[in-house]
Structures are given as structure tokens and as C-alpha cells.
Model the fold of this input.
Amino acid sequence: MNRQKISIVVVCLSFLVNAVTLADENLQVLSGTIDGVKASNVMNHYLRSQAQERFEKWKAEYEQRTTPEQIAEYQKRLRSKFLEAIGDLPRRTPLKPRITGVVHRDGYKVEKVIFESQPKHYVSAVLFLPDSEEHKPPYPGVLVPCGHSRNAKGYESYQTMGALLALNGMAALVFDPIDQGERIQLLLQLPELWGTRAHTMLGVGSILLGRNTAWFEIWDGMRGIDYLQSRPEVDPTRIGCTGNSGGGTQTSYLMSLDDRIIAAAPSCYITNFYECILELGAQDAEQNIYGQLAFGMDHADYLMMRAPTPIIICAATKDFFDIRGTWESFRYAKRLYSRMGFAERIDLLENDAPHNYNQLQRQSVTRWMARWLLKKDEPITEPTIKLLSEEEIKCTPNGQVMLLKGARSTYDLNRDFEKELAKRRKKRWKTTSRTELFNQVCKLAGIRRLTELPNPKAEELEVIERNGYLVKKMILKPEDGIYLPALMFLPKQTRSEGVVLYVHENGKGADAAPGGPIEKLVKTGRSVLAVDLRGTGETQQTSQRYFMSYFGSDGQDVYTAYLLGRSYVGMRTEDIMMCARFLHLQDGRVDLVAVGHVSVPALHAAALGPDMFGSVKLVRGLVSWSNVIESGRSKNQLVNTVHGALTVYDLPDLAATLGANLTIEEPLNALGEPINKQ
Done:
């Protein structure tokens, strides 16, 4: 082939044919840092840079929003995008509430309640009601979603919040979020999986369905308001919402989306994504809404989407949610409220305290609710509250809703939805053209067509000599900020036609040892290019621990990409396609071998670019995304999620398009086990 036709910039930094001996062999390509960035942080730096661009665009768009018409259009558009991103909410079904007990205290009473937010999907809650001559019904109702505490509604702060509201003439419904309190969803499988990790476990499958863990939480909250409004003691026109930490997240979402909430007080959550990503990295599943940085929804928008609804932000100076971001979001919201003529309806309490729902915050929240729901504005002092015991606050006979007859978990609800989608997919793949189907695949995964992709730049580095072949170190650069370390294995003698592109979940060196799978290919005369796809091998993230136990060491980077509306599957698919074209231009036919979880992007690349590949072999890859839903539990599958993929296609649908060219060896289930394991 005429190499003059190759439109690839090759910079030969060094070409050392007489390289090191095998005993001194080092297959590392990148130095400790590249362009000032630690190799393992390349993806984090790249994604942060993209996020920074979105922040700057957000600020510019905010400044253009000045008239009532522009603000109203913004609110309508953003709420629509928010709902689209979390998935269509369910239809309302009978709550079927029942009161399982009542506890009386001085000045208030507590009713223990169970209701169904969806059929047989039970919510455990306690309703604090005024019980004194001083306060007469109908009372305003305040929804109190709990933060990430194991005992949820039984936690001191949340009980006390409910009691203080009731003592001041308001009804308060304090409910257990999923995977906390009496609502552990994988009770019989992993009772220790609760809170943020459980929410992220649920999030893996939910992403594939085009949902979010927030979908469940938001709907539970909305049905909680339905329950409050159903009570004759509650005035349905005076509804407030307050919660702390994870409850602050839920409050932020609910006050944005539910017009029935006329006063709100999110505590220890509001900051902004710039500070959050910079300091903490992306958080658990429900705190990351798909593409929200791309379509322009930051924390300040939760405050502004329902302006001029009265909102007080409770914040702590020593919180891990950075107070600088809180103030920035507040200032943007305050300016918008001022533009609307309602500056007094938004405020901020800055408390010199760590992350909690302490007495000062509870008093301030109660005063805020009284101001807007009772039209009373006076200092409120919290008395000593006699807490309910663990037994007293328990709503269910055995302490868990999943032990109730016929109970349906969040995973069951996802399975039900997947069964519906499977029927739709089957019909779609029979009746829709291949071109249209692949267009939809590309749109969902964020994959550009090959003609839209740039040619990667390449740097050739040193060459290592082995017995019968050479190993050339290379760096491929598919785009600014991305570096793909690579090893080109070249037989010294006559070469077979074509080349093998080899990608492995553990990087280019995983199968590169003498006597290993790559050498066996080279000994047959094949040239082999082994590449670290972005975020693997030398650029594998190693410093993130938040999600590592179940979701890999790069979960926070994956979620930052998710906030940007991107998927690792899509980005790695493009890496493979560009590497294949790089080889195709030089050597013609390219065979593809993928080992481990990178089989998912490899399958996408092969299906979308069949003319570039000869044979395709996938080893120890995920059998299907539907298996993730069926299993419920999964291990290290977050990196291979595509938002809403199962609304259009599953991995076997792509595999079927390759026919005899595809070989699948040792497929694994969602837990990384052989699928035939008993």
C-alpha cells in the first residue's frame, strides 16, 4: 500500500532497534506524567476540562436570562429536560395506606404509616401531627425525606425535625428512602448493601433502562405528598419540603419538579458542580442526572426552576459540600429572584458546623416553614424531644418492608420494565432498517460515525527486541488530552496478511508476556497492535475509592462523563474505530480481539464498522445488559453502561449483525461469573 496516502502525523521521537535485553524489558510507554498530568489522572483531567467548558457556557446563558418571558421559558425547558433525563414517571396508582400504630407525645402524636408508591412497592413513614389545643386543623403539611443514615426516619435529627414542625402547628411526614431504615431492597441477598452504595448498585441497571435512582426517590416523595394531601387534617394547598444531605438532594429535586411545594429548605446539599467535581468528584447515583451539565442544569437551577417559590438554603461551613459553591449558587439564584421582584423569597443560613441537621438548622427550617405556610414569623426554640425507640418507630411487623407479603423491590420494578422493553426491542429489530437502528445506537452511546472521527496522531518511541519479533512502543492521540499507550508487535520474518488489534481490560501488557496470547499470534506471522483504551492500562484511574468496592476504581470519572452526557462505551468505541482505521490504512484487514469488559465497546466498534474488521473475538465479556437487570446485583458494570440502551438494543442484537465473523468465548454474567456457573 502507498504510505503517501496515509493521513497520519507520525513523529519519530526515537527508534532504538538495538533495545534492551528481555531481562530488563519495560513495557511502560508513558512517563510518570504527561503534559503535567499523572497518567492515571488523564481521564479525570480531560473530563474536568470539558466540565469547565460547560460551566462557562452556563454562566453566559444565565446572564442572558433577564425578562419574565425568558425566565419562564428557561424554567419550562429545564424542567422538561430534567424529567426526560430521569425517565418518564409512573402513573398514579392507589396508595393503599395503612396506619400500623400510634405513639403519643406531649403536644404531638406520631402515626406509623405504610403506603404503596407503586403497586406492592412499600414506603415506610411516620406522620407527626399536632396534638394540642393551640393548633387546629387543617395543618400545613411538610414532607421530610431522610438523608443517608442507616436507620433513616429513626435517626435523631429526622425525628426531631418532624416533632418540631408538629409542635409548631404543622404536619410532617418523615419517610424512609429506598435502601435505608425499613426499606432495604436486597434484604435477602446483601443486607449490608445500603445507602449510597446500594443507590449506586440500583443506578447501574437503571441507567441502562433510561432511568436514574432519583426516579424512585422522586416518585416516592411525590406520592408522600399525595398521602399528606389525602389526610383530612392537612391543608392540601400548603405543602412544604425539607431534608438534609441525601434528603437535601431529594428536596432539591422535588421543589424543582412538584408545583404543590410552596416552601422548601434543602440542607447540606446545595453547592455547585464545579466545586463538587473539583473537590469530591461525582457522588452516588441519584446525585448525577444524565447529561445535566450538557443541557445546563447545575445546583443553582434547582433553586431557580420554581422561582419565586420561597426557599432557604441551609449550609455548613465545614461540610464536604463546598461552601464556596453554595454561596455561588445562592448568588445566582438571588439575582434571578431579584429580577423577578421577589428577592426576599430566597435566603441562606450559613452555619459554622460540619455536615449535619443540627438544632440551629432545624429551628431555622421550622421558622421558614411557619413564615410561608402559617404566615407567622417569630423566633422558634427547639425543646428537648423525647425520641421514639427503635421498636416504637417501626412500621412493619418484622422491621423491613421487603418481608411484607408480595413486596416488590426497586429491582423487581426494573425487571418489569425490562420485560416490556425486550418485547419492544424484538419488534424494533424486525421492522426497522439496520441504518436507522445503528443511528439510534450511535445517538444513545454518543458514538460518531467513522467519517466524523479525526485520524489519530501517533508517536513512535523505543523498540524492544524479543526472540523472533520486535515490540515497538507508541502513543496514539485520538483527540486533545487523550493518550493511548500502545505496543506494536512485529514479526521479523514473513508476515501474514493483515494485523490484529488487541484490547484488554487490564491494558496492553496483560497478555503481552513471552509465551502469552499475543506472542502466539505473532509467532503465526501476524502483527499485533495492543492498545490501552482510555482509562485502561497506564491511564487506569487508581486514586478513586468512593465506588471501588462494587463499581471499579474509576466510578467517579464515569459519573462525570455521565453528567456530560457521555459514556465510556462510546468514547472507547471511538478509540477502537480510530485505531482500526490507523491499522487499516497501513495493513489492510484488521482482526479484533477484546478481553474483559472492553468487549462491550469492541462489539460496538465491530458492529458499526464491519468493513474495517475481519474476524472479531470477544473473551470474558458481558453476555448481555438484560442480565444486569435480571441479576440486580452487578460487579464493575458501571463503566459499561449506556443511558437508555435497553430502550433500543442489547448486546446480543449487535452480536447478531456480525454473524460468522464473531466468536464469543467464556462469556460472563453481571457478577463476572461464567454464565454456566451453577
Q: What stands out?
A: Confidence is low (pLDDT under 50) at residues 1-24. The longest strand covers residues 107-118. Residues 11-18+436-665 form a domain with the Rossmann fold fold (CATH 3.40.50.1820).
